[in-house]
Design goal:
Layout (H helix, E strand, L loop, with lengths): L1 H15 L17 H10 L1 E8 L2 E10 L2 H14 L4 H17 L1 E8 L8 H4 L1 E6 L2 E4 L1 E4 L4 H7 L8 E7 L3 H4 L4 E7 L2 E7 L4
Antiparallel strand pairs: 1-2, 2-3, 3-7, 4-5, 4-8, 6-7, 8-9
Helix pairs in contact: 3-4
């Protein structure tokens, strides 16, 4: 019995004493510092707070996910997740395909009102672009809140994150002024996004 215990202890000790794998130091730092990235996101984000008298109805932040924002966002993800060149290229290609098919906006939404928290049921989203009104499709973000807060510094722990997708290529949206619209019985918020962003 002692021999078996010693052999078992030996294998456990050897298993715990294996050398760690070497970290790949070839992953370059992102092009933008954390401060520069936060400034870029801030420049591409519009905000609104609606009140009914003294009662707060909602807080809304909308970030356009255009080429400049998406490129920097993917660069941050590449660095934080330590993606190699092939993985990063795959993510860029996937993102390029999405931008060729649709325009996406990240929204951070909070309401203290229980009914108004039901974003898909209470609100409609539209993108008015080049004389056409496109309906938005809502996707709740599946990423962990902390990761979303790193990518979108204005996102806080009380808010919910969503992607609103419109059936018009982002490459088209980047050419002309567009107006993002959130509307419902509690009110309407409109944000103008210029192509110069």
């Amino acid at each position: 019995m002692k021999v078996i215990t010693l052999i078992l202890f030996f294998f456990i000790a050897v298993g715990c004493g294996t050398a760690p794998s070497k970290i790949d130091q070839s992953v370059e730092k992102p092009r933008l510092t954390d401060g520069e990235y936060a400034k870029l996101i801030s420049e591409h984000t519009k905000s609104d707070e609606k009140y009914n008298g003294l009662q707060n109805l909602y807080h809304l932040h909308v970030t356009i996910l255009n080429s400049k924002v998406n490129g920097s966002r993917l660069d941050q993800i590449r660095y934080y997740n330590q993606l190699d060149g092939a993985e990063a290229a795959k993510e860029r290609e996937k993102n390029f395909q999405e931008m060729s098919n649709s325009a996406q906006f990240f929204i951070s939404y909070y309401s203290p009102d229980r009914d108004l928290r039901k974003l898909p049921k209470m609100w409609k989203f539209y993108l008015e672009h080049n004389g056409v009104k496109y309906p938005g499709k809502i996707k709740h973000l599946s990423e962990r809140d902390f990761e979303v807060r790193v990518l979108y510094p204005h996102f806080d722990r009380w808010s919910k994150g969503y992607i609103i997708e419109f059936p018009v290529p982002m490459t088209e949206v980047e050419k002309f002024n567009s107006e993002f619209v959130m509307t419902g019985s509690a009110g309407t918020t409109r944000f103008q996004f210029d192509p110069s962003l």
